[in-house]
Amino acid sequence: PTRRNRQETAFALNFAVVATLQPFKTFIMADIDEVHPGLEAADVVTKYKMGAEMANRVVKSLTEACVAGAKVLDLCIQGDELILNETATVFNKKVDKKPVLKGIAFPTCISVNNVLFHCSPVENDDEIVLADGDLVKIDMGLHLDGYVSVCAHSLVVGASPDKPATGPAADTLLAAYNACQAAARLIKPGNKSDVVNDAVIKIAKDFDCAVVEDVASYQMSRFNMMDEKTLIANPSEQTRSDAKTIEFEEHEVYAVDVIISSGDGKPKRGSERANVFKPTGVVYQLKMKQSRQTFAEVQQRFGSMAFTLRSFENQARASFGLKECIEHQLVTPFEMMHAAKGDVVAQFRFTVLLMPNGNLKITGLDIDPACYKSEKAVTDEDLVKLLAQPLTSKSKKKKNKKKASSAAAAASASAAADN
Q1: Strand 115-117 to strand 331-334: parallel, antiparallel, or no bridges (unpaired)?
Q2: Greatest CA separation found in the chain?
Q3: What is the rounded distance in angstroms from the CA atom of residue 264 to the CA atom of residue 278?
Q4: In what order do the strands lie in the sheet containing 337-338?
Q5: Contact indicator for 103, 70 with CB cutoff of 8 Å
Q6: Which phi and psi (to 5°) does residue 411 adopt?
């Protein structure tokens, strides 16, 4: 299909899902303030796991599509289509006469080389075409009933065991991947964010790289991708005084973002316009009719979740309507950020559940080590030992075998009921 046809298909899929939701204006920012079930409830864990499996499949499909000659716009459209197709297969029965809300929580972004994140172009943007050797970052998120699973993965286009990536691209990607794995093991009840930050910074230095300043990892809850606790990676001088140390607790959920640069780690705002946005929950009476219409559509279709300009049928009208929303902070833009020209940046983002029997890292793909060759490695003995450890010990798994069986049974029952 042509790019235009694919855009129309993606919009039609998105609108078809949303059309059934519009009579029920429940998917709005006010839901964040309500008390929602957490990980103590087996069905909530089931929803997270189901969403995570979908997110991993979407990202896996996109990694296979990231080949020389592929266009970033097409990849982003493909990613959003995959999210909507995946989430359309489950939870199709109404609960209390209302549909279960689901779909895109964070639109597909494909950022290349020195672009850090949030690259999700629209039709009229400058065309970006992948080439062999490009370091590509895939980032996306979806939700089932408001429970969000996010995932980001990096790869070098054309890298293979027969032709592995080397140099700064391989060093940066391996640094980010190892730092991500260390973070997944250190974010556990009783630990503090400083421990995680220190480990990530040490690993980056081992690969002669730098952790990108001020990248935030967030606690998440139902309908809320940015909850109370925030972990700021490598705080800059401007944010160091505001960055608070947090302690991780049982039954919390985190979206952990690790972004590492081959350069100095100081991000700079690009000249491109933002195409990804998120409602803030701020209340303001908009003056312009087009602004009110656009914001009403945002509330009905996306609620508290992030969205892209690409998802509107008339992008020009939506862009105009969003201006007043941004001016009065009803919506915040996710700006595209860059490292210095010539640098490369790698990103891995995962969702982790802090369960009583150990962490559940539910999103995130592994890399093929044979595809990336570096003369550098993790040198800290404690971190080497940490990376060799499984996320959950076997003894804890055995001790909680009955609980795991019960959870699996609950997942099967839930999936069967919704299909």
Answers
A1: unpaired
A2: 62
A3: 29
A4: 115-117, 337-338, 268-269
A5: no
A6: -65, -45
Q: Are 133 and 157 in contact (CB under 8 A)?
A: yes
Distance CA 11, CA 261 (A): 35
Q: Which single residue is written with the structure tokens 């103590």? A: 40
CA-wise closest residue to 184 among 232, 134, 248: 248
Mapped onto helix, strand or coil, the DSSP state of residue 211 is: strand
Give the list of residues 6+ apart from residue 280 with CB closer than 8 angstroms, or none.
29, 329, 330, 331, 332
Give the position of tokens 């990613």. Answer: 79
Those residues with Cβ within 8 angstroms of residue 189's Cβ, 6 or more apart along the chain or in another chain: 248, 249, 250, 354
141-195 pLDDT tens trace: 999 999 999 999 999 999 999 999 999 999 999 999 999 999 999 999 999 999 9
pLDDT tens-place string over residues 347-370: 999 999 999 988 899 999 999 999
Closest by alpha carbon to 310, among 41, 59, 121? 121
Q: What whole-number distance in Å separates Cα of residue 237 and Cα of residue 356?
A: 37
Q: How many Cα atoms within 13 Å fall on the side-chain side of residue 387?
A: 19
> 3-state DSSP call for residue 312?
coil
14-59 confidence digits (pLDDT tens)? 433 333 333 333 344 444 456 688 999 999 999 999 999 999 999 9
Q: What is the pTM of this model?
A: 0.86
Q: Which of 306, 271, 253, 296 is nearest to 147 (CA)?
A: 253
N-to-C CA span, the chain: 30
Q: What are phi and psi of 289, to 5 degrees?
A: -60, -45
* DSSP labels, 15-41: HHHHHTTTT-TTSSGGGGGS----TTS
Q: Hey, what are 174's tokens?
A: 């391996």
Encoded tokens for 295 = 């914001």
Mode of pairing for the β-strands spanning 268-269 and 253-261: unpaired
What CA–CA distance (Å, rounded) separates 371 from 161?
5
- Residue 341 and residue 215: Cα distance in Å, rounded? 19
Q: What are phi and psi of 181, to 5 degrees?
A: -65, -40
Q: How far apart are CA 347 and CA 266, in angstroms?
A: 15
